Amino acid sequence: MDHTTPPSGGPDDIVMPFAIEGQDLRGRLARLGPVVDDILNRHDYPEPVARILGEALTLVALVGSALKFDGIFTLQTKSDGTIKTMVADYRAPGALRGYVSFDAERLSLFGKAPSFRAMMGRGYLALTIDQGPGMEPYQGIVNLDGDNLAECADGYFRDSEQIPTKLQLSVARESHRGPDGVVTQWRTGGIMLQFLPPASQPADKPGAGDWEFRPVPEDGSAAADAWARAQALMATVQDDELTDPTLSSERLLFRLFHEDGVRVFDTEAIRFQCRCGPERVRTMLSGFGTDEINDMAVNGVIEITCEFCSTRYSFTPEAFLAESQGTDPSAAEPAQD
């Protein structure tokens, strides 16, 4: 089974880096269409849950696409709210996936559009960069104190990275009539703007390149004025502009920053890709004993479902044990659906 959705090849499913001319201001604009629609529809989440995961997927695409190496950027939340756990990750270059664990009974107590705070409750947001084998992961954690996910991430960059950052995330569910009737599709958009002078990032932080640490711009300085102006301009962008399929990324950025001048750079294509597979299932089960393997079976079959892509793997305990004991190497190939 194919666990990958290719990028659309058009204006959707891309991240576009940009810079404000003559200033220490850089950003990224994400526009996701078929990829995020595929991820959300694999789980058939209730709309309030899907919207928050859509924001998380857009956020990790924005931040992860800035990595300067083939690592993994992961967003994870844990809370006592309706959404118990949420995970979204970006594996360079361009691979995106995510899932949510939520309390359906508690969700039923809310109206159609519960607030972010109501959905999340009290908990934390962890952002992790995995640089690969032999390297220590880098992680920052902040409380889920914002009114939306963008505000929580702004707090992470402010408190953990000391990088002035402004984020806006938008999720839309659009309906249109197709040849087989009405089709509903998810779309997301996001923009991230940062104050990044030539010496603003700690050189010992993953993905920082050749940057060195410099504090935020001083009040009253030209840099502080430029940062305040850029934030004010960015605040004018509407949610529907971020998700409008008829508005190009270049045109949107021109609308926002044309007075100062904006330069765009090569886009990065985003695709859905899950890292599950039969071998990972076998590796996971290899840590259990024979009795535990037998106890996992229901009606003589072990079924394991990937949380990220909803692919189900099924096989008998006898087949797995035969393979693990070397008596029949081909017997434990799980069936997929």
Count of alpha/pi helices: 11
Order of helices and strands: EEEHHEEEHHEEHEEHHHEEEHHEEHE
CATH 4th-level superfamily of the largest domain? Hsp33 domain
Let me know the largest β-sheet.
7 strands, mixed
Assembly state: single chain
Number of domains: 2
CATH class category label of the largest domain = Alpha Beta
The share of residues in helices is 25-40%
Helix/strand-derived category reads alpha+beta
Mean pLDDT: 86
Walk across the major sheet and give the strand order: 1-13-6-5-4-7-8
The shape is globular
Strand content: 25-35%
Question: What is the β-strand count?
Answer: 16
Unreliable spans are: 200-204, 206-213
What's the architecture of the largest domain, going by CATH?
3-Layer(bab) Sandwich
Rg from alpha-carbon coordinates: 22 Å
Defining traits:
alpha+beta, Hsp33 domain, CBS domain Like, 11 helices, 16 strands, 29% helix
Can you walk through the features of this model?
The model is unreliable at 200-204 and 206-213 (pLDDT under 50). The termini are close together. The longest helix is centred in the first third of the chain and has 18 residues, at 47-64. The strands form 3 sheets. The protein has a 7-stranded mixed β-sheet with strand order 1-13-6-5-4-7-8, covered by helices on one side. It contains 11 helices and 16 strands. It has helices spanning 34-41, 47-64, 104-107, 116-120, 149-161, 222-234, 239-243, 249-257, 278-285, 290-296, 317-324, and strands spanning 4-5, 14-20, 25-32, 72-79, 83-91, 95-102, 123-130, 138-143, 165-178, 181-195, 262-264, 268-269, 271-273, 302-305, 312-315, 335-336. It has 2 domains: 9-205 and 216-273, Hsp33 domain (3-Layer(bab) Sandwich); 278-336, Alpha-Beta Complex (CBS domain Like), CATH 3.90.1280. A hairpin with a 2-residue loop joins strand 9 (165-178) and strand 10. By secondary structure, the protein is an alpha+beta fold.
